[in-house]
Amino acid sequence: GRPAHVLTFKPRSGELPVREISDRFINNLRGVIWVDAQDYEIAKADLSLQSEVTLWGGILGALRKFDYKLERIRVDEGVWFNRWTRGELVGRKFLNNESVRMRSECSQFEKIGMKEARNQ
Fold first, then answer.
1. 10 Å Cβ neighbour count for 55?
2. What are the strands, taking DSSP E only, across 37-60?
3. Three-state DSSP class for residue 119
4. In degrees to the nearest 10, what's the CA dihedral of 112, 44, 84, 25?
5. Residue 5's Cα: distance from chain center in Å?
6. What confidence score (pLDDT) does residue 114 get?
7. pLDDT tens, N- to C-terminus, the chain (120 residues)
8. How far apart (Å, rounded) are the C-alpha atoms in residues 54 and 57?
9. 8 Å CB contact between 82 and 70
10. Structural contact between residues 28 and 38, judged by C-beta atoms closer than 8 angstroms
11. pTM of the model
């Protein structure tokens, strides 16, 4: 419900430089990110892999699927918290297939005073 800048991105076509292992992942990432127009905080994100990412030509492993979604909430001026996150990873580590799903949800955010914080 707040004004946001919407950033859409995807990998360029052609070969992208790979200097580190993480570059293989980043070079295949696509998504949409909503940035709050006032606070310049990420309010929402939807990220996924465009294609499979392999390690050492697929011998050590491969990441076949990566989907990650995030929604954040502004609870006070300049204060943001994750409302929910969801993610799924599917791949292979050497000879073992791996599949991981994660989800977190947070709600009922309350501002507490310093006295209350010290007593907890």
1. 17
2. 42-49, 53-55
3. coil
4. -120
5. 17
6. 61
7. 899 999 999 988 777 777 777 787 888 899 999 999 999 999 999 999 998 888 777 778 899 999 999 999 999 888 999 999 999 999 998 889 999 999 999 998 887 776 666 666
8. 6
9. yes
10. no
11. 0.79
The position carrying tokens 């990110």 is 33
**Residue pair 22/56 in contact by the 8 Å Cβ criterion:** no
Structure tokens at 40: 């310049």
Q: Count the residues in the chain.
A: 120
Look-up of token digits 């491969």: 62
- The 10s digit of each residue's pLDDT in 47-73 is 999 988 887 777 788 999 999 999 999
Of residues 67, 65, 69, the one with CA closest to residue 34: 69
